[in-house]
Amino acid sequence: MQRLDTLDYLYWSDTEIRVSATSIVAVEGLSGIGTGKFIIKNKWGDTIITNSELFVEYAIQNYGQASFSGDSYLKKRGSLIYDTIGYIFSLNPSILNSPIRKAVTEKALRDLSCQTGILFRLSNDTLPANSYISYGNNVTNTTDKIAYTSTSVDQSCFQNPEIRFEVAVTGFEIEMNSDTQWDYDTLGNTPNNYSYYSVLIHELGHAHQLNHVLNNASELMRPTIATGQFRVFSSNFFSGTDDVISYNQNHTYNNCSYSPMIFGNPFCSTNSINEYGIEDNFKIYPNPFNYEFTIEFNTQNSDETEVVIYNIIGKIVYQSTQKNQKLITINLEELSKGTYIVAIHTNNEIVSKKLVKTN
Using one digit for the tens of pLDDT, what is the confidence trace for 168-210? Predict the structure, then answer.
């Protein structure tokens, strides 16, 4: 452990010591709070190992400040802000121009928002972005880093000599590494490469103010993931997000121009993968399908329509162009069963939908 000070000692007696665990433990080449036995060492170097193991369900992000006296290190939690607006994410062109990457990115944002109640959504013409998700290698340019989240904070709100400054979380920058071989499946089918969906949910967990844990191998907030692993939400993850929300709902601060986040009304509809296969101007059926499916437009489409289908690793497996068609039937009998993304290009717009082939 590092940086334990008087603020970390919660209780001390002849038979029991309680401490607040910090988030700085070097394990697996990264930092995180882990599971294992606790070692206590006195000033003479004598040690004792606990009989029971420490099991950390979740870890909360901390932001450090040196105290006025200089002899302690204050661990401060971040406050989520922007009242009912929330954090507005823009996407870089490498995501926007890839229908499958864009769809899965939007689905990850929507799923985290709907599952936890935090206000994450995409930017539009009336909502300027305060956060950013990119696909590149500016930050993730080493072999052991496939994604990274940078958090911006403002510590200008002075509270009092003991608390000092409030930590307001003002935005995030998430980079998904463009040199990594990704799978884009979102249903839990075993990927052959790294799961883009699982890793992005992990990074959004950091934005939700969760830190790394080293308990179960399937935990979303574990600092490493292997190819072929697909991770989903867990009770430990939700315990952490509930803790973050409870803290923000009950925490008060003064001398700040920021408005605390108001939870409970997530933006669940912002997603270009339509789970139910229905859009305002067309629908796809049947979905799931066996060998073929039909795209039906509400009116006869006089414009040129391009249909592109991608597999879960982003490879194009079907492409065609149609014009003056109300019904388009596509046969994919030769493809294996699994999840696909169909991108429909028409009227200078692109709409993506998830397809499931059962045979």
Answer: 999 999 999 999 999 988 877 766 799 999 999 999 999 999 9
Is-cis flag, bond preceding 286, omega within 30? yes
Low-confidence stretches of the chain (pLDDT < 50) are 1-3, 23-32, 270-279
Of the chain, the end-to-end C-alpha distance in Å amounts to 53
Contact 324, 303 (CB under 8 A): no
**Non-local CB neighbours of 125 within 8 Å, separated by 6+ positions:** none
Question: 168 has which bridge partners?
Answer: 79, 154
Which alpha helices (H) appear in 117-231, and where do they start and end? 196-207
pTM assigned to the model: 0.72
DSSP alpha helix (H) spans, the chain? 93-96, 99-116, 196-207, 235-250
CA distance 80 to 327: 47
| Helix or strand (DSSP H, E) at 220 | none
